[in-house]
Amino acid sequence: MDENTAAAAAAVPEEHIDWGFSGAEKGTPQKTDVLLKNVHSGLPDPVSHPVKSSQIKGDYLYFHYGCDGQDDRGWGCGYRTIQTMASWIYYNCSSVKNQNKLAPSLLEVQQALVSMGDKPGSFSGSREWIGTFEASLVLDWFYDVPCKVVHVRGGGAELEQVAVEELHQHFEKHGSPVMMGGDRDNSSKAVLGVCTGDRGSYLLVVDPHYFGCKLEKAELQRRGWVAWKQVSSLDQSSFYNLCLPQTNKRRI
User: Fold this and answer.
1) Residues in domain UFSP1/2/DUB catalytic (predicted)?
2) Residues carrying an active site annotation
């Protein structure tokens, strides 16, 4: 992406994407719905005097259930998080494969996983969910961006020490969105920041599970679809995996 294209992208707060569907189910967001950009902006830190705060650098789009006219409630959260991560790569990275591809569709993600041999042919067109490991494969497949996958066994100390430190280092070095998911807590989420205070740490979470017509950024924040979540509020009996795109050498 050249400087003029990057500047134009940064100036536009939302984006139309035509996914090529013939129509959408009743009550499902339409294919021409506008996707919002940088839905976390304006959200204050969760503590007044953070010891350390690290966040995403650059633009991205917020992908969520049904944003392309396909009702993927109950299984598509991992795909939507991948799309959010892919949009960040599109806006912020240079010299990547498929530089003109903003984000792969759900079916394209499935077909890629079949093509690379990770999934059987029956996976294409299914409603099977995917996680952080598949996210790492997909981003490498479409954009030639490798990912670091970190396994956190769970529990308060492990999350506060291992996950928080990994996230601080990632945002300071790479600045790209992170995908997080687990076993008991198997709801995929995009993590866009981490803030550490005197009484623990918080994650800046963009939740892909919203379904419905477009909400303004302030309303998404008010309803908690974009919010700081205290690390101690996560499921302490669940393990978690983090998918961290290694993008520092590909920034514009």
Assistant:
1) 53-243
2) 77, 207, 209
- Residue ranges covered by each domain of the chain: 3-250
Q: What residues contact 241, with CB distance under 8 A and at least 6 apart?
A: 131, 132, 133, 149, 150, 151, 152, 180, 181, 182
Q: What is the mean pLDDT of the chain?
A: 86
CATH topology of domain 3-250: Cathepsin B; Chain A (3.90.70)
CA distance 27 to 44: 33
Q: pLDDT tier at 17 (50, 70, 90 boundaries)? A: low
CB 40 within 8 A of CB 218: no
d(C-alpha 194, C-alpha 239), whole Å: 18
